[in-house]
Structure prediction request, 304 residues.
Amino acid sequence: MCTRCVTADTVLGSVRLVIVQPMDRVDPTHHTRVHVVQSRQTRPNAATDVAQACPFCVGGLESPEPYDVRWFSNRWPALPEDRCEVLLYSAQHDASLATLPTDAIRRLIDLWVERTRHHAARSDVSTILIFENRGADVGATISHPHGQLYAFDHVPQRSRQRLRWEPPTQPELLVDHSSEWSTAVAFASEYPVALEIWPTTAVGDLPSSSTEQLEDLARVLRRTMSALDAMYQQPLPYMMWINQRDFSNTDMTVHMNIEIVSPWRATGLMRYIAAAEVSTGEFFNPVVPEELAATLRDLFMRFD
Ligand SMILES: [Zn+2]
Prediction:
């Protein structure tokens, strides 16, 4: 084992954890950063989790007391030094961003703001990534509505590219527009479903957002997820994340944005990224973004 690694055993209830500091590596050819995190091999997976009580329901392992929203440190952190958190959206096991009331989503957004502010105050944090994996098709191991936070000590490559992101201008890609936020289909995503959401008045991070922006974001997220779930007449598996500024400097000119992508190209039908794409870094998307935008524009009109 690498001399940088530290092992420690902890007994928590019936769960025995082996915490191993990750090894960071950079591929010598492709310059891709890989965090080798052996401890994550011991986390529950969907197949075995089914038979166990939900740890996020009230009374469960992670949520002994009633709550509206809740955060806690990830027991199987991908990064060391308290950089990985789990963020619970609701105590209701079958809730989602499409079904939660707007005021409940607003409380979640306040939690995002509070946890972002907490990690932004650290001197060893640059990127604060808030994200959600929803559904077994994108690897979610627990179906209870939740997201996560990773506080990186650097700006990952793609996150650095997103610092230079600018809103799309093609009207045929626009899906939704309010006084505070706009939503469009991505111009050239490798995923068949890919949305970008951004504040109409540019702001670099959640804590810098106005009360009006945060209020409206709750409504925008509910409306967006309702339309996405309606598209295939069943809950859409998706990955969502928020691109915020680099908190290690004072550059506030970054335009914060939210991305939502799904691997589904039709109802229940996965689009797998395969050899020709993995090998070349070029992608073959079967969904025409402008047609997806037209479909979603119609669906968005069904929801407040
Ligand atoms: Zn639950």
Observations:
- The mean pLDDT is 91.
- The longest helix spans residues 211-231.
